[in-house]
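## retry 2 of 3
previous attempt timed out at serialization; input unchanged, resubmitting
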Amino acid sequence: MYNKEKTCCFFGHREVTHNIRDKLTSIIEKLITEDGVTDFYVGHQGQFDTMVYSVLKELKAKCPQIRYTVVLAYLPDEHIKELYGEDTIFPDGLETVPKKFAISKRNDRMIGQSGFAVCYVHKITGGAAKFREKAEKRKLQIIDVVD
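## retry succeeded, writing output
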């Protein structure tokens, strides 16, 4: 059972144009050790999501109490199953959402279940900026990877 105050989601641009891996790792470690975050939700649409997943997978070896889940926007195909195995969920009801709205609906769900959002946003346009703003309006604690 998840606790919203101990749950973090991630939003970032598809392309990672900064060297952020070390900072991202430090942020997630701090969330675990200082804020007691145990549950992490990440998408799977781009380089930022892939990096987050990789860092969480590595940290799981040092911090076995954490759980991380790749939250799918679309029904999984064989490629997704090969990449993420059992680390995925496909939220109930998303199968009826038109494909062009699926990522937004999925992201809204992640915001609704989280107390923290780690964001990689360096452009004021695009989905990452939009969902960072939504998370801020919903009073999540926002942690920016890029200042």
